[in-house]
Every structure is written in structure tokens, then in C-alpha cells.
Amino acid sequence: MAQTHEDLVVDLKSVSKHFGGQVILDAVDLQIRRGEFVVLLGASGSGKTTLLRMLSSLDHANSGEVRVTDSSTVVFQEPRLAPFHRVWRNVLMGLKGDQRNKAKALAALDEVGLAEKAFSWPKRLSGGEAQRVALARALVRTPRLLLADEPFAALDALTRIRMQWLVQALWREHTPAVLLVTHDVEEAVLLADRILILKEGRLAVDIQVEVQRPRRAGEAFAQLTEYLLGELGVSKEGDPLNSAVPHRPGSPAVSSQAVA
């Protein structure tokens, strides 16, 4: 089926941002369509958080055109729960706490596996549970676009894996477009339909992931991970590389659309 303009939830054209004399984003063009799972990678200072803040209307471009669906929500690295509200009320933060919305909050908590915690105080939650509440808060708004700024960064390894699978399940069920910022290349390969890399404020890489779902460690997974690490300037073992790992056209793992 052909994609139409109405499928776009993000449409950026020649978007630039600077602070003083420092260029943060440099003529960025980006389109994200409904249902896409997009992951954004890049070194610290490459402009990832600035781009996400712009899409969430927390920051503004100095030039260019920014169009974003008005049905969007953000999950931050920290859950940002109000300690003086019960869990279910945190899910409804900013919405009316009437019986209809309360029922939606309880249903969202059930989806993320926290039905039994609905009437608990946030201080009684583990880090992973608190982040699941943040996901429920996003779900209850039924967004067309879910923005996520390193939402698993503060979690332990096992909890992070559980959260990755949960996010995939929720994405398949609710089909929002997702833009997730992470530093974790393997996380990007596990989750994404499409992976972007920001370098010095420019979108240097834009690739479609062709590894079949559900994804497991294997040759195609490893090949794509190595390619992305190379584009980020490191090897899989963490050693700096003098140049990016060359992409081999026709790879089963990736369709490359590197941006000059």
C-alpha cells in the first residue's frame, strides 16, 4: 500500500539549531511514518537530545520547518513520578482523574504487568517498575508518536532486557510511531525498523533494518551491529577505528541509505 502524507507523524525540512556560535543541528531532514520504530544513535553531543526536545516542543529550531503530530508523548530516562500520588494517579498525570480515565489507567497498568501496584506509592516501586509506570502513562494517551529518551539507561541488565521486550510488545499492540534515543547499538538492532545516526548535528546514516523478527544473536545481527559500531567510530571490542566499517551492498542485515 502506498504511503501518503497523512501517514507522516514527523516531517522535518532543513532544520537547524545553534546555541551561540555552536551548531547543534545542521540542516536536518527527517520523516517518520505512523507505525515505524526508529532508533536514534550518536555520540554524546551529537544533537540527539536536542532533536528529541524539538519534536516534543520543549525546544525550537532556529531555522527550517518542523511538523509533528499533535498526538505525541515522551518517556524520559527518569520515570518522573510524583511521590505524593498513588501509581494510578501518576499514570493520569495531566488528565482528569474521573472514573473513565481511572479505568483506562488501571488497564494500562495491567498491560505493563503492574495491576497489583495500582494503589501503591511510587517509593514502593523498583526502578524497572517505575519505568513501566512511565510507559503506562504514555499508553493511556494513545499517542500516534512515542518519543523515548534513553528510557532503559538507568536499569540493570536483566530489567533492561525485560523492558526491551515489553516495549516491542506494546508497540505491536498499539502501533504508534516510536523514536527511541539510545547509546546501545545492540538495543537499536533488537528493536528498530530503521536506525539513524547523528554526527556533528547531521543525519549521517539512515538505514532500514532487514533482520527478521523476532531477533536473536546470529550472523546478520552481528554484521549489522559491527557496521553501526564502525559508523560510530568503535569496534565491537571497544577499540577506536580509523574509518567506518565498510558496508557491503546486498547485505542481508541492512539496507543502507547513508546521507552525505
UniProtKB/TrEMBL annotation:
Region (Disordered): 239-260
Keyword list, A-Z: ATP-binding, Cell membrane, Membrane, Nucleotide-binding, Translocase, Transport
Domain ABC transporter: 10-225
Record InterPro entries: AAA+_ATPase, ABC_transporter-like_ATP-bd, ABC_transporter-like_CS, ABC_transporter_ATP-bind, P-loop_NTPase
GO molecular function, one term: ATP binding
SMART domains: AAA (SM00382)
Designated name of the protein: ABC transporter ATP-binding protein
